[in-house]
Amino acid sequence: MATWDDVVEIAMRYPEVEETTSWQTPSLKVKGRFFARLRTEAEGGLAIVCDPSEKAALLASGDPAFYTTRHYDGSAMILVDLDRIDEPRLTELIEDAWYAKAPVRVKKAWEET
């Protein structure tokens, strides 16, 4: 079972990540670009940036860790049930979201390390 603190700990492994708020909820940004937030809505979960084709595959997989709501249908974000995701998969999702939003300069510097 993962928590928001676990999400933050994983995200902080990547350069230029800051913990902040978005829509009055805890969120993560890379150089000011939003990539994840903890939802306080009734369905809860982690809203995280996700490639649309990856989102479709995750939702089609039937894995109960992944879901969406009408608000997120058609968006490049997927909802994650932190109680149902394992750490390796969560880490992969966070890295992918960070990579999707990080500026080219930040990505290049990270790739060179």
Question: What do these coordinates show?
Answer:
This protein has 113 residues and is α+β, with helices and mostly antiparallel strands. Helices cover 35% and strands 25% of the residues. It has 4 helices and 6 strands. The chain has helices spanning 4-11, 52-60, 87-101, 104-111; strands at 17-22, 25-30, 33-38, 46-49, 66-67, 77-80. Strands 1-2-3-4-6-5 form a 6-stranded antiparallel beta sheet. The protein is globular. The protein starts with a helix and ends with a helix.
Could you give a short account of the major beta sheet?
6 strands, antiparallel
Strand content is 15-25%
Mean pLDDT: 94
- The helix/strand class is alpha+beta
What radius of gyration results from the CA coordinates? 13 Å
What is the rounded distance between the termini?
30 Å
Q: Helix tally?
A: 4
Shape: globular
**Numbering strands along the chain, what is their spatial order in the largest sheet?**
1-2-3-4-6-5
Helix content: 25-40%
Question: Ranges with pLDDT <50 over ≥5 residues?
Answer: none
Topology as H/E string?
HEEEEHEEHH
Q: What is the number of strand segments?
A: 6
